[in-house]
Amino acid sequence: MRRACTRPHVVLRSALPGHRKVGGIVAANRLFSLNGEAALVTGGGTGIGAAISRLFLHMGAQVTIASRRESKLQAFCNSVPQHASSLHAVPGDVAVDSERIVATAVAAMGSISILVNNASTSVGKPMRDMTGAEWQTVYTTNLEAAFRLCQSALPSLEANRGCILHISSASAVAGDYDDAAYVSSKSGLEGFSRHLAVELAADGVRSNVIRPGLINTEAFADYPDEFFESQIPLIPLGRLGSPEDVAYAALYLCSREAAFVTGAVLTVDGGETRI
């Protein structure tokens, strides 16, 4: 049964902080600014997470990145020395350390106004070959950790009328990736985001999803050329996506320019799924 939403406190667009309007339009030099924002990005040391973290830093946010691999955190920090004062790194596995990661981020930045649930894992097995333990491992990282991170960060997100961004996958709708747990956990993540969009609206907290397609990250470094030759013809735009393609979408959804966007799924896949 559908329930009526409690209307959140109304904030006029012109009253949002950090914007200078010219003729009713936000001045271009202020568009998508993240000045004053504090973002926690899980899986922030590599791939899509690193691209999001780098762009958010460039746009003025404080950023805390979390990753299981401390070497990747250090490598990312070394790659952006100009942002050293705004960047914080937390080694940790979201599957077991979610509450500590959030607490460390709040201690480092003073608050969290943007939460990016990007960390995920896969075992690369179809249902018939997967053990129950493997299924649970994927779900713990991909879905349960998102719940724990959101719950732990909620007081800070509410105080800031902040936003949550979940990184899903085109396989959530295509079902074609050869990992039953990964596909279904990403589908579950999208449902979780839709629920949060309704539940948290009265507190001014937004929740959205990016659904990337085939993105050229380190995860594909060892894949043979034949794999890409078989996949690229399936993408109408004729190329792989880049982590930056996803990062720019993330910037929009986490910016004040997207203040009226919640419960959305933004597909970034070059047209492959056409959904």
Strand and helix order: EEEHEHEHEHEHHEHHE
For the record, what CATH class applies? Alpha Beta
Integer-rounded radius of gyration? 18 Å
Task: Tell the overall outline.
Answer: globular
CATH fold name: Rossmann fold
Spans of at least 5 consecutive residues whose pLDDT stays below 50 are 5-23
- CATH-defined superfamily: NAD(P)-binding Rossmann-like Domain
Salient structural properties:
275 residues, Rossmann fold, two-stranded antiparallel ribbon, 7-stranded parallel β-sheet, globular
Write up this protein.
Residues 5-23 have low confidence and may be disordered. α1 (47-58) crosses α8 and α3 (94-109) runs parallel beside α4. It is globular, with a radius of gyration of 18 Å. β1 (21-22) and β2 form a beta hairpin. It has helices at residues 47-58, 70-79, 94-109, 132-160, 171-174, 180-199, 225-231, 243-254; strands at residues 21-22, 25-26, 38-42, 62-67, 87-91, 114-117, 163-167, 206-212, 265-268. It has one domain: Rossmann fold. 40% of the residues lie in helices and 15% in strands. It is an alpha/beta fold and 275 residues long. It is built from eight helices and nine strands. Strands 5-4-3-6-7-8-9 form a seven-stranded parallel β-sheet, sandwiched between helices. The protein has a two-stranded antiparallel ribbon with strand order 1-2.
